[in-house]
Every structure is written in structure tokens, then in C-alpha cells.
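Final paragraph of the annual report: two paired records, presented back to back.
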Amino acid sequence: MGTLLSAPVSGALMDFDPYNTRTEADSTHQYGALVATSHGRDSYRHGKVGASNVSKGKLQQAPAPIANHVNQTIDSASNVAIGDKRVTLNNGGTAAAVGEYDQGWFITVDGTGEGQTLGVEHNAAAASSADIVVDLDQPLAVALVAGTTEYTLAHNPYNAFVEAAVQTRNPSGFPLRDLLLGDFGWLKNRGVSSALGGSAVSLGGILGSDASTAGAVTDATDQSGVDAIVKVGAASIVAGATGEYHPIVVSIE
């Protein structure tokens, strides 16, 4: 495996093992904590499995954006002052699970205070009829106006990652082992990994998520235009066949 070259997270990563999994209730590292191996060939990010069990060699992605948490207004009765680190948000009639947006982002989209990007420290659970209370990791630089300022909440792609047949979602990486719902583990985001081919994969092809098979990759040009797919790597070692796992060079970031 090689020793660690870098581990830009708090504390020592003595438990780093991409072939293992952890089942405790809380993460031992930040979502997306990055580790590079000493030989310089591979890097991994730490995350938590989302909606269902996931499989080795399959591409993982961020949770689906919630339409009613995009371009919504802050609560109609809650102005937010400069320096505040808590915001109360209209949830558009869609519930939010506790911690769903932890270590994700709060972005002010339009209106007073627009253009700010702040990390989410934590969000409380919110029923479909309730507002979402969000604690930020930095204070607001510009005040927000109740019922006027619009926001978007964005998930951390390593907090509850999923297998999905979606070509435009933020990719997370490839696990080297099967992981169960709620497990914590490591996803390869750079280096060589086996990858399931959703359709024939051409030698030299730039790869993105397949539109039909969850967790599979395919030539970007096989789909609806090169620019319509978020790229995850290249088939620069061998060509691949539909339904088979083949080595690709992962370059998610």
C-alpha cells in the first residue's frame, strides 16, 4: 500500500486502510479527508455510504440535490445579521435529515447578501412543514433579508455517497471493497482502479458516469455530447467491454 505521503486532516491517520471499513456512528475524519500514498500513484478520500450498500469497482457520487433546497428563500421571519453563524431557511416543503448537509455548503444565490459561500457545520432535522436550522462554519460577511435572500444548500459528495446512473452529478470515487449502508470507508479519487463498464470502453477514451447502469462508466462521446458528462478518468491502459471490470486511470480531481 505504501506509507502516507500526506494526510491533510486533523490528527494522525493511523487507521487508513482502503481495504477496510468502519461501522461506528460518527466519522473518525472529516468527510472528504484526503490521503496520498508514499509512492505517489494513488489518493483516497474518506466518506460515508448513503442510501444503500455499494460495491467495489463502481463509481460513487454525491447525493442527489434536493430541488426544494435550491434557490429557496431564507425564513420569512428571520433576518440574519453580519457576523451570524446560524441561518433559518424555508425548506420548500421538503424535509431534511439531521446532518444531511454537514460539511457541505450554504450559498447565497440572489437578493441581499448574494454571492457568499460558507461551509455547513451542522443542520438540524426538519420536517416537510418546518424550517431548516443550519449552523455555518464561518460568520456571514453580508446580512441576509428575510423572505428576500435566496439560498442553495449543496451536499458534501462524501457525506452519504451513492451509486447512481447520473452523468452530471459530483463524482466521489471508487471503493476498493464492498461497503454497507452507513459504513465509513475510503474512495480512490486518483490512480488506477477497476471500473465497471456500462458500455464498451474505448482505449484512450475519456470516461464519465454511464446513463443506464448505476456505478458504471462509459466513453463520454457515447452519450449526449462530451460536455454533458462530468469526467472521472480515462481508459488509458486497456479497452473494456460492457459489464466487465477493467483498469482505468481515475482523475476525479
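The closing record of the year follows.
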Amino acid sequence: MTLRYTSVAAADTYFATRLFVAAWDAASDDEKAAALTMSEAVIEAIPWRGILYDSDQDDQWPRVIDEITVDYDVDENEAIVPDEIERTVYEEALETLNTGGSTRRKLQREGVKSYRIGAKISETYSDQPGGAAGVVGLSSEIAYRLIKRWIYSGGPIY
């Protein structure tokens, strides 16, 4: 499985510095790679501001936004994928492992606003599945906060 923006080893290093990552620690390397792949697919589907750095590149990053390359390695003299994108992939992968099979998440994605079981159990969901992150397809609010400034929100498309 080829990953676009990161690797399982890099994600392991990242999560070694984070709390509340039991789902990541419990996952096999294949499950981790699958979660990262799913996360990268979400990243690739987000409507981003700006244009691709190179019109021949296969991925959405690196990018030029407002005529500025978002991240550039001066030593290597090349555009690079910003750390925020890599961290977004990690955080979205963790959220996928935490809630990927969640019935609640599935109901929210299907547009269910509330449900009741008998007289004592009920749940009501917000209009936006997954909060603000759900608008662009992310499950993780942390991931959304990392990249929200780069998400297209109207205006000209190039």
C-alpha cells in the first residue's frame, strides 16, 4: 500500500508524543496503513484554495495559495507538503480507528437528526455531521482546525 503524504513509521513517531491514542497503539500495521490511506483519500477530496504547485503532480499538495507556495524547503530548493497536512492525515486516521464502525457516525452521515428507543433513551445530532469538520468530510475536529485556513470557501476557482 503506497501512501501519498506519510508512512506508518512516521505516524508511530507522531503518536508517541500524543495522549489518548489507544486505538492507534492497538491497531496492526496493516490497519494503521489502511486508516492512513482512508485519511489521505479524504484529504485528496477536500476543495482546497489555490492551485497545484506543479500542474503535473498527482496529489493535491504541495499548493500555491494567493501566489505563495504554502511550504518550501530552501535547502532542497523544492516545494514540500506542509506539516499540517501530515498531522491532519494522522489525526483523521486516529479518528477513523476510534469511530470508523460507529453506528452514531453512520446515522449522522445519513442525515438522521435524532432517534428514540422507548421512553428513556434518545439522542439528537447537530445539523452538521462531525461539526465543522463534517462539512468537508473530515471526522476529526483536530484535523479540521489544522487545515481550515486552506479550505476553499468561495470565490474564483482556477
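The chain has a mean pLDDT of 88. This concludes the annual technical report; the extension proposal builds directly on these records.
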